[in-house]
Each structure stands twice: as structure tokens, then as C-alpha cells.
Amino acid sequence: MSQYDLVVIGSGPGGYVCAIKAAQLGLKTAVIEKRKTHGGTCLNVGCIPSKALLHASEMFEEAGHGFEQLGIKVSKPKLDLETMMKHKQDVIDANVNGVGFLLKKNKIEAIHGTGKILSAGKVEVTAEDGSKSTVEAKNIVIATGSDVMPLPGVEIDEKQIVSSTGALELEKVPGKLVVVGGGVIGLELGSVWGRLGSEVTVVEFMDKILGPMDADVSKTFQRMLKKQGVDFKLSTKVTGVEKKGKGLEVTIEPAKGGDAQTIEADVVLVAIGRKPYTEGLGLEEAGVALDERGRVKTDGHYKTSVDGIYAIGDVIVGPMLAHKAEDEGVALAEMLSGQAGHVNYDVIPGVVYTQPEVASVGKSEEELKSAGVSYKTGKFTFNANGRARAMNKTDGFVKVLADAETDRVLGVHIIGFGAGEMIHEAAVLMEFGGSSEDLGRTCHAHPTMSEAVKEAAMATAGKPIHS
Ligand code: FAD
Ligand code: NAI
After folding, report:
1. Which ligand is nearest to the CA of 358?
2. Which positions ≥6 away from 132 have C-beta within 8 Å?
3. A single Gene Ontology molecular function, please (predicted)?
4. Could you say which of 3, 160, 419, 465 is the most buried, measured as most Cβ atoms within 10 Å of its Cβ?
5. Ligand 1 neighbours by CB, cut-off 6 Å
6. What's the complex ipTM?
7. pLDDT band at residue 467 under the 50/70/90 scheme
8. For 57-62, what is the mean pLDDT?
9. What would the pLDDT profile of 236-281 be if each residue is shown by its tens digit?
10. pTM for this structure?
11. Which CATH number fits domain 161-272: 3.60.15.10, 1.10.490.10, 3.40.710.10, 3.50.50.60?
């Protein structure tokens, strides 16, 4: 007889949320985690520590440049990096311990060790001391997440040539920071070190930053970051990084080929994406199929090619986002308990936690154009918003894209202070299939930044009040 109804491998946002939901629904559940603490990439070396440093560095920047215009005179702020890093570590500790507490509270067996699938129903666990045991369960969930994508020929030492993990741990502010990849990690962590004093150069292979982001937003955002001092080399690739004296020499060349050039750096951050983590899981032997990009192949119910083995989160297809992993965890636990679980992949918000923030949900203009959908656009800028003016946060805009015939909202893109909070009213509206008229007729409190969302919705019919 199986020891457990469900065993989850990995306790990141996908795994721990799936386990908690399953336990709440009455399944006898265990989680296997090889890291010392729970919470996965997100809580240990991802979302949470990066947001702690983003916030702290933003406050540092604000105290240095933002207060004066408000009539607050302070002496030039001094950086105490050690204390800033302690703040980050305290935040991590509180969060990972919180997950440990929740697992216990829900009577989930937390097994420390590395899981390897022997066959459907059987997982071998290797503890830190090398001892092995076997866990049996009716169902197995692979929630092993993702790992840093390496840049061929460039060895990450996490001191001078770092991934996001090393970039969250630097002991001093680099004089020159070269970021390889103008994606989410590169721009968030580049912003952190830029605000703390680094000269930041972002080298991006494509001709725009933030790849799939609506081009209008991406262009505006790049302009804003440039004003903040970030230098961009677009349509350019890094082909090598060599140690030279105490520093580094980075070789770059045009993405389409051409003459190479070198730039100097004290630290290089490699942020060119992440890859699904399936190492040592025994998937091949167990017969679990992968797709062409090394992700675990699943059907619409998260089932892999083997009955009784499921997968969720970064290790399967879809955006590598914590909330996507969490929602898949809930949906799968519900399905395994005989309920109807569902994730609406058309309404998964994405936020870049820079200053200003960039947030979007649904389709970009480019996606609508290439799908041949006829749409109308409503745009409203924050410099016409009273609250934004009062707070000196007038950069950016809200853009609402709605179906030209039905008026149904298909995408909302916001660049501005607090965009990551504002996006959710659009997400709720879209989840219920709402129209831009619905959004424009919903009473919004005054004065709030969110009024710009209402006005952008009204602008799809050409009738905003304040512009
Ligand atoms: P993970 O969080 O990667 O967890 C997988 C866990 O499985 C790990 O703890 C790992 O140790 C464990 N594991 C792996 N193999 C085994 C094994 N064989 N046995 C036992 N345990 C195993 N997303 C957002 O939505 N918002 C953000 O702001 C954000 N910021 C980020 C910042 C950075 C710097 C990074 C790197 C990522 C960020 N992400 C963010 C992405 C987010 O971290 C991931 O999408 C999320 O963690 C995926 O969750 P997961 O449960 O699929 O996997
Ligand atoms: P990314 O996929 O967002 O961006 C990588 C960028 O690197 C792309 O623009 C790509 O064109 C570029 N690139 C690839 N090879 C290159 C080369 N050789 N030279 C120059 N540029 C190159 O990946 P990133 O930023 O590493 O983030 C990984 C994942 O983590 C993302 O999928 C994201 O979803 C998640 N994440 C989410 C955050 C959030 O939600 N706020 C924050 C941080 C990470």
C-alpha cells in the first residue's frame, strides 16, 4: 500500500502550494526538497530577495534625488550595503520559515533530500549524508523548477561573473556592471546596482528589451532607464568574457555578425534566461518524456507521459513565473482530489519591479496584429493624473486594448509607479470577460493612480475626461 496519496518533488511556489492545497483537500501528502530551506528559487534566490534589494535601493535613490523636490532636505545618503543585505536575508528567512510552518500546520511530511523517480509510485530520496530511502505514493508531482541558463564559453564563478544568485550577494558595488540579457532579471538587478552606484551597460541580443513585451511599452521603458543612466547595446551579443588584471574584458559583436569590440567590466551578470531543472530526477529511466526544450511534457491535466506522474511550474511549458506555478499547483491538487482545477493562461499578469514598474496582462499589440484581430486602443498618461502629480510620479501610461467589435478587453499594459498593483483590476475584469466600457463605467476612488486605468478604458471609445 502507498505511504502517501501524493509526493511532491520540490518545495518552490509550485510544489509547496500544490502540497498545501492537496493536504487541505484531504490527501496524505509529502514534499521532498534538496535545499536546506523551503520556498524554491523564488523565496531563496529569486522573487523575494530581489524585491528586498529593489525596494531598499529605490529608497536609497529616492533619498538621494527624490526628496529635494518635495521640500525635504536631507544630507547625501550613505550606503550601508551590509545592513541592506541583512534586510534581504531577514526577508528571505521570514518567508522560507513561513513555508516550513505552513507545511507543518497542514500535516505535510517534509522530507529533506534529493528525489529521484524510480517508477510510477516510487521516489528514491538521497539524504545529505548519502543514505537512501524510498517513498511510495499514489501520485508523484515534479515541481523541480528551473536553473540558470549558461552562456557558452563563459564560466560563472558567482563572484565576478555572476548569475542572478551571485548578483544578489555582491559584497561591494561594482564600478562597472555589464549585464548580458535585457530581460526581466537583467533589468531588475541592473537597476538595483545602478541605483547603488554602478555604471550599468545592458547587452541585448534582440533589437528591443523585455522580448515579448508590447513594443510601445518596451521602447518607453528603455528611454526611461536610459535617463536613469543605464546604457544599452541592442542587437548585440556577448561572445566571451576574459579576466584581465582585477577586472573583466567582455567581447561583444553585432547579433547578425560583424566586427568584435571589447568593453571593460568589474562584474558581469549573465541573465539570458532559465532552463527547466530535471537533472538527476531519473526521468529517462522512468519513461517521462521531455519536449524539444528539455521541459517535462504534460497534457492539459499536468499529466506526464507516465500515468501517476505529474509536473507543474517552471519545469513545464509556459511563463516562468511564481504565480503561474502556484496556480498550477492548486489546479493539480484539485484535479487529483476529484475536483475541477483550471488555470486561465490568457490572464497571467507579468510585472517588472523596476522604477517605474512595468505590468501587463493579456495580449500585446504585436500579438493582436499577427493574429489578425481588429482592436482599438485607449491610452492615458500619468502626467494627466492628479495623484501622480501629487506624488511626483508622472512617468508612464496605461494602455487598454479591446476587441474592435465586441469591446472585450484583450490586453492591458501599464508603465508607471505602482503598475504591479494596478494591473490586477484589469486581470479580474478579463477573467470575467469584461469590456472596456465595463472598466470605464466602474467608479474609481479619487485621487488614485488607478483612475488612469479607468480613463484609458474610456479612451478606447475616444472619450476620456481628463485629456
Ligand atoms: P522553483 O522555485 O525553482 O523550486 C523548485 C525546487 O525544487 C527548488 O527548491 C529545488 O531545490 C527543488 N528541487 C529540484 N530538484 C530536486 C530534486 N531532485 N529533489 C528535491 N528537490 C529538488 N517570478 C515571479 O513571478 N515574480 C518575480 O518577481 C520573480 N523574480 C525572480 C527573480 C529572480 C532573480 C529569479 C531567478 C526568478 C524570479 N522569478 C520571479 C521566477 C520564479 O522564481 C519562478 O518562476 C518560480 O520559483 C518557479 O517555481 P517552481 O516551484 O516551479 O520552481
Ligand atoms: P529573459 O528570458 O527574461 O531574458 C533574457 C534575455 O537575454 C532575452 O531578452 C534574450 O534575447 C537575451 N539574450 C539571450 N542570449 C543572449 C546573448 N548571448 N547576448 C545578449 N542577450 C542575450 O530571462 P531572464 O531575465 O534571465 O529571466 C529568467 C526568467 O525568470 C524569466 O522567464 C522571468 O519570467 C523570470 N523572472 C521573473 C521576474 C518577474 O516576474 N519580475 C523577475 C526575474 C525573473
Report:
1. 2
2. 124, 125, 126
3. flavin adenine dinucleotide binding
4. 419
5. 9-15, 32-35, 40-42, 46-47, 50, 114-115, 143-146, 164, 185, 277, 280-281, 313-314, 320-323, 325, 353
6. 0.99
7. confident
8. 96
9. 999 999 999 999 999 999 999 999 999 999 999 999 999 999 999 9
10. 0.98
11. 3.50.50.60
